[in-house]
Amino acid sequence: MSRTALRICPLCEATCGLTLTIDGTTVTGARGDRDDVFSKGFICPKGASFGAVDGDPDRLRTPLVRRDGELREATWEEAFDAVAAGIRPVVERYGPNAVGVVLGNPNVHTVAGALYPPVLLAGLGTRSLFTASTVDQMPKHVSSGLLFGDANAIPVPDLDHTDHLLLIGANPLESNGSLCTAPDFPGKLKALKARGGTLTVVDPRRTRTARLADRHIAIRPGADALLLAAMAQVLFEEGLVDLGELTQHVQGLDELRDAVRDFTPEAVAPACDVDAALVRTLARELAAAPTAAVYGRIGSCTVPYGTLASWLVDVLNILTGNLDRPGGALFPQSATDRTPRPAGPGHGFQLARWHSRVSRHPEAKGELPLSALAEEIDTATEEGEPIRALIAVAANPVLSAPDGDRLDKALGSLDFMVSVDPYLNETSRHAHVVLPPPPPSQSPHHDFAFNTLAVRNQVRYTRPAVPLEAGRMAESEILARLTLAVTGMHGADPSAVDDLVIGQTLGKAVREPHSPVHGRDPQELAAHLTGENGPERRLDMMLRLGPYGDGFGVRPDGLSLAGLLEHPHGIDLGPLQPRLPQPLKTRSGRIELLPQPIVDDLPRLRRAREERPAGLVLVGRRHLRSNNSWMHNVPALTGGTNRCTVHIHPEDAERLGVRDGSAVRVKGAGGEVTAPAEVTDGVRRGVVSLPHGWGHDRPGTRLSHASADPGVNVNQLLDGSLLDPLSGNAVLNGVPVDVAPAD
Length: 743
Ligand SMILES: Nc1nc2c(c(=O)[nH]1)N[C@H]1C(S)=C(S)[C@@H](COP(=O)(O)OP(=O)(O)OC[C@H]3O[C@@H](n4cnc5c(=O)[nH]c(N)nc54)[C@H](O)[C@@H]3O)O[C@H]1N2
Ligand SMILES: Nc1nc2c(c(=O)[nH]1)N[C@H]1C(S)=C(S)[C@@H](COP(=O)(O)OP(=O)(O)OC[C@H]3O[C@@H](n4cnc5c(=O)[nH]c(N)nc54)[C@H](O)[C@@H]3O)O[C@H]1N2
Ligand code: SF4
Ligand SMILES: [Mo]
Description:
- By secondary structure, this protein is α/β, with parallel strands linked by helices.
- The chain has 5 domains: 2-54, 2-Layer Sandwich (Phosphorylase Kinase, domain 1); 59-126 and 351-445 and 461-491, 3-Layer(aba) Sandwich (Rossmann fold); 138-336 and 584-605, Dimethylsulfoxide Reductase, domain 2 (3-Layer(aba) Sandwich), CATH 3.40.228; 493-569, no CATH class; 613-741, Barwin-like endoglucanases, CATH 2.40.40.
- The protein is 30% helix and 16% strand.
- It has 25 helices and 28 strands.
- The protein has a 7-stranded mixed beta sheet with strand order 5-4-17-16-15-6-7, with helices on one face. Strands 21-25-22-24-23-28 form a 6-stranded mixed barrel.
- A hairpin with an 8-residue loop joins strand 1 and strand 2 (17-23).
- Helix 3 (76-94) runs parallel beside helix 19.
- The N and C termini lie far apart (57 Å).
- Bound molecules: ligand MGD (2 copies), iron/sulfur cluster and molybdenum atom.
């Protein structure tokens, strides 16, 4: 007998609602949920393969514990005993910084990943935190921190209403969007064009997104900050700056005008390889559009000037009056956001409060660069202890971070490592304990992170579609028990972690004058919480305290978990609305247009006007049926055009004697790899492209399909030394490489 169940898709940032078909406890089908308030039936090939991803026979079913050098199946009790015995002595002997924590991308796609790592970090007190953010969007956090005083206040392009979208270094037709949660991003771009709007794409590759555009600019990789600075310069020079409603909220306009004065289109054109006249046209089009949004993603962040480019994206939105207005770029208001405080000056955003031990990289948002993880493990200094134990949650840095070979070796040298991961892969194979979460069908879902980045305010929650299989442990419980084990409370009831957070959060809320529960008794409030378990009670609390919440009875029509459960397809909370000045947390209480760290970094960009790469440079790419490093084990999602090949322009191929399909050797500062060439004019001259997340040929993994067609690890070409200095973000694009036929 088959049945259906609803499940929000966790496989990318679009968060589509799925209707799963379930036979017994097996997911046998997935289709788009047409009644989903947000995704309205959209699904992509990855979502359609939910059953295959969920039911992969290589997923681990029980914990693994290393004994006599080998990972063997163990009970949960044995596994957590081993974690406590492995981590505590390191903390006690060398201090908390000797324990590293690595948080990978899927943490933003799970309830557990949103709710527990913050408690684990607070309890452990380590500064050795590394996450996927520093191989991704950290530059955007830093620019938002500097401009708005809040690293998480990221404006989102109003896709449904804008008249003009300037899209930089993003390929949503393959990625389905990022830092812009929009189910059916492709459909939204087509709708933009259908209503007479225009789409401009800046990308060194002629991507599927670029082919949809009215204008595609094949910029030289890494030069976007120059292009954007020149557009700002043109807006000032031609009197096109018009802040509109924003004027009252902005400071530093005159200083900004001076700062960009020497980034003329003529001065940047050679480095960008974009015509000066075209730069002027882009600026004029942006200013002339009734509404417009500039949006930048991976190609604008994972480059040497990532923070400057991310800052300039919002500078252009501000200079054209498009920030915080419908059709422009707005700040979403999520249902689990904290109760909005009244507008006014805040604490501001600080960088470099501490530094990494070996290369003295500044922290950003409490994190150190993932690029520095290997050296923080393998290099002794007088500054302090190296990392001797590691906690990795949903992370595969051996493939996703620069110089995987060095990290691979470093992980092998640790005193102790624990991985929370469903697979035995390139990273978790080094663990002493592997704690496998259940597959997504057995897990609840709510998008704590992506609702703060969504193009429409809405809220949805799905309970597990399939009951927890015997012997499985919910990922929330795994992370709660892990938290207890590493903070010296091994064996305590895992609900203690949730009770602690609930007690602290409510205790704080009742003291805040602007909170709907101001002055009430936290214990009385806690007794009102509903839900079947700790995570549900915490979701209930956040919804009720949040901007749409019932305020624990103050607004009877407001949101609560019970109310949300009555709407299995979600609740629509309306289009994005202007919110300024409320989101601002700068010390001035205004948007600080030209913050000092940006001023200090601009000379570097000035020098970049003279830079021209001598040889080829490398960029990445994503395939619609991929997801970073962990979906190559699903046969339904591999093969066809989803291959680990080197894209190279026909003219470069001919000059180098590279034939289509032949093997080419690509060499970078960190090493070399050999992969088949695909000669295509889909990349511009001077640029080659390899996808990331491949290289599944290391021994000791359990990835039967992926290891049969392993591909190569593009990140081996990097040595980890190239970073965006303000954010510590790895430079993954625009990296110099040598290319030659392999024979
Ligand atoms: N060259 C190059 N490198 C890149 C990029 C690039 O564009 N170019 N992109 C970068 C970006 S944007 C990112 S986000 C990073 C991603 O890099 P990582 O953060 O390492 O993420 P993934 O590669 O997705 O690997 C995720 C891990 O989580 C596990 N996992 C899957 N589902 C779950 C789950 O539900 N729970 C738990 N606990 N674990 C789970 C997987 O088995 C895998 O081991 O890669 C970066 N690396
Ligand atoms: N199918 C699929 N979807 C995914 C993922 C996946 O692996 N596969 N990963 C998810 C994750 S973790 C993320 S962060 C998002 C990323 O989402 P996107 O940013 O949309 O991802 P990409 O497809 O890598 O697009 C980046 C584009 O930047 C271009 N580029 C490279 N260098 C430069 C440059 O210097 N300047 C400019 N202007 N462009 C440049 C590349 O050619 C590429 O087309 O995707 C998410 N969705
Ligand atoms: S677009 Fe993303 S969220 Fe939607 S079905 Fe595909 S993978 Fe899932
Ligand atoms: Mo990412």
